[in-house]
Write a structure and sequence with these properties.
Chain lengths: 564, 149
Amino acid sequence: MVVRDQVCATDAAELIEFSWLNATADIVIAVAFLALSAMLFQLARRRRDLAFKSVFLLFALFLLATSAAHWVVAFTPYLPYLQSAFWPKALAALLAVIAAIALYKQLPHALAMPSRMALSDLNTKLQMENEQQRRTESTLKQAYAELEKNVAHRTAELSEANARLQQEIIEHWRAEQALRQSQARFSGILDSAMDAIITVDDEECVLLFNMAAERVFRCERSTAIGKPLSRFIPRSEANPEHIRVFAHEGNSSETAPQSVMLAGRRSDGLQLQLEASVAQLSEQGKRYYTVIVRDVTERLRVEQALQHSELMLRKLNEELEKHVFERTAALTATIRELESFSYSVSHDLRAPLRAVDGFAQILLQEHAAELNIEGRRLLDKISHNARKMAQLIDGLLQFSRLGRAEASYARVNMTHLAQTVAQEVKTQESNSSLQIEIGGLPTIHGDAAMLRQVWVNLLTNAAKFSAKRSKPEIQVCGNEYAGEAIYMVRDNGAGFDAAYAEKLFGVFQRLHRADEFPGVGVGLAIVKRVIERHGGRVWAEGAPDAGAAFYFSIRLPESAQIDN
Amino acid sequence: MADLTDIEVLLVEDNPDDAELILRALEKSDLTHKLHHVDDGAKALDFMFGSGVYAMRYAAPLPRVVLLDLKLPKVDGLEVLRRLKSDSRTRRVPIVVLTSSNEPSDIGFSYDFGTNSYIVKPVDFAELTAIVSAVGAYWLAHNQIPSTA
């Protein structure tokens, strides 16, 4: 406000001081009004949505004009400011009036405008409402989700139930099919059963009669149905336990039926032996009995026959064993007798011969003077025969001992064995030109001592019969053929008549006179015996004066056949 | 009969013919002067041990050799051999088995029981003579015997 009227010019100093104070106040007012005006402008400019913008602007202009008036008053303190401050004051007054009018006009509107508090309240309320709404929405959403879940669950349940229902329908259909099939099968089984199957009711009237029953009882099904069971399985002493009793006591449909033996009757009157089992079945208060019957007439007959033959067989076997035992005992006794016999032969038979020869010799030596030539010749004959008989006994003993000896089998190198024996034979032989040629011989399994005797006998024999040749030759060779080792000893000696080839191997069999070739006739018999004990054969080939060939074979063991 | 307490050869032989032939064979070699002959096993044992009928021979010198047949009455030759060879008084006396048997089992057992020799009597008298005189000469003239213990 301009307070120019307060200046009193009492004195100059007081006046000046008073003017400065007024000026300062005016400047402050001017600045403040200018600032207020600027702020209002700024407000109007910045707040585009500002209500009553024109009023604000009018007030701003009014404040600007008032500020200008105060500026003027402040800087012209010594001037009568009526002139200098009039225009700004007038403008300010005008603007104040306009602003007042404008404000007046706008006042109702301004009053109608809600206050900031009210707005804030309103806002809070709105926010609360919003929150409420949000909550409600959330609850709704939740409820909706729940609902959807429920719906999905129910849907799943429903589809499951549906599937189950469909499955049940299918199964039901299948069961029906199976039932139909099983019924068909059942009747098929019934008729293909080996056993007769008969079902009767409580009154023992036949209700079911399968094909096997037709066969067993020789009765058509059509005839059998309705007939009493006793027609096929009579109430007789053979059947003390009749069907019903049996079924009652022994069986129910739950337990495995035990079989019993029953007597049956065929329609042609023939008696049957039956093996039967009975099952009881209750249905709708009625009882049914199913009798399963097997015709065992033939089987029992066969069993009896079998038992009988088994008995016979056992008896025969026992007799046989007794026989074998007796025979073995007898044989053992015979062998023992033979052993003691050969022992006796060895001891007792030779002693008299020794006496014969001995005393004949003593007679010849000590009483020669009392004997004539004929007497001495006869005594010589006595001695010679005694010695001959001793040789025969020795041969016989050797042969019999071979039969009793235990054979011990081992691998025998026949080449080596034959060579050793050949060497011995050559040294004993008087004819030094004797040639023995031995090829490679198959190795076999055998008793070396016995086989040695074979070579001794064969080579001695060959040497003996070829001794009269100028160039006696013996050839030994061997080979394997068809699982056998075959050996040959050939000489270029006297040979023999092939017609008597078989006799060669007999005990005491000789094809030559003793004065031609000495010997007792057991050598080849021993060869035969040894070879036969080795599972082999002996044979000979020859012709008079054209040499002889003796052969023997020995079976090769399986492994030896591969080795060789 | 020679002095029974001074016998060099005991012949155990049941067959009189064999005994005679053996004696004749020994005679030829002049070896019979101190020979005694018994015809069964029991007598042979009595003679050796100085018992029974040979009690007078108790502690008498033992023969230089015994010629023993195997097949004998009463006590058989193998048993005589076994008893003589298992008794400390007689086990050093040389025993020659002189028998008809050439059975391997007889030969085996004789050696098992300790015979000093085993000879098979041949049938041929000439052979017998040769063998017996050789045996006599060997055991009486050449063989050294230990002092009886």
